[in-house]
Design a protein that fits this description.
Elements (H helix, E strand, L loop, with lengths): L2 H19 L4 E8 L6 E6 L4 H14 L13 E5 L20 E6 L10 H6 L6 H9 L7
Parallel strand pairs: 1-4
Antiparallel strand pairs: 1-2, 3-4
Protein name: DUF7054 domain-containing protein
Organism: Vitis vinifera (Grape)
Pfam families: DUF7054
């Protein structure tokens, strides 16, 4: 027997032993990406991190040429278990710990940043006083004495 065949048999035996002992449970998951046409399905190990699952989903999504283009930065995405609850899964959790097989991948919402800092806004001399600004902002009148 050749070395190559011997290595294959050893790998196959070790893989079968792991499955018999229950140390390498694999299962099929479906990941729905918001704004995409359908789910991405792939096999994961029970011990895989959520971050690795997000990475695999993004790579599969890009490989399939789906739209809209998402990018590959896993830090910009959250994974939710479709059956369990409304909280996003931690990237450091194990995929097998949540108990679900259906997931939703969402891009994080980036909060708009203010262009001016507070002291600049308050110190700015403009066309009116702070009362004028407040009246315009809150749409109510402040009566002066």
């Amino acid at each position: 027997m050749s070395q190559k065949m011997l290595r294959r048999r050893q790998k196959k035996k070790s893989f079968e032993e792991q499955n018999i002992n229950g140390t390498n449970n694999r299962f099929l998951i479906s990941v729905n990406v918001l704004g995409s046409s359908g789910p991405i399905r792939f096999v994961v190990n029970e011990g895989d991190l959520i971050a690795a699952v997000i990475d695999t989903a993004l790579k599969s999504y890009a490989r399939q040429g789906r739209l809209p283009h998402l990018g590959s930065d896993i830090n910009q995405f959250l994974l939710y278990c479709a059956n369990v609850g409304a909280d996003a899964l931690s990237p450091w959790e194990l995929i097998g710990s949540c108990g679900g097989r259906n997931f939703v991948l969402c891009k994080k919402q980036i909060e708009p940043q203010m262009r001016e800092t507070r002291p600049e806004m308050l110190g700015r001399k403009g066309s009116g006083s702070w009362k004028t600004w407040l009246n315009k902002s809150f749409n109510f009148k402040i009566l002066s004495h």
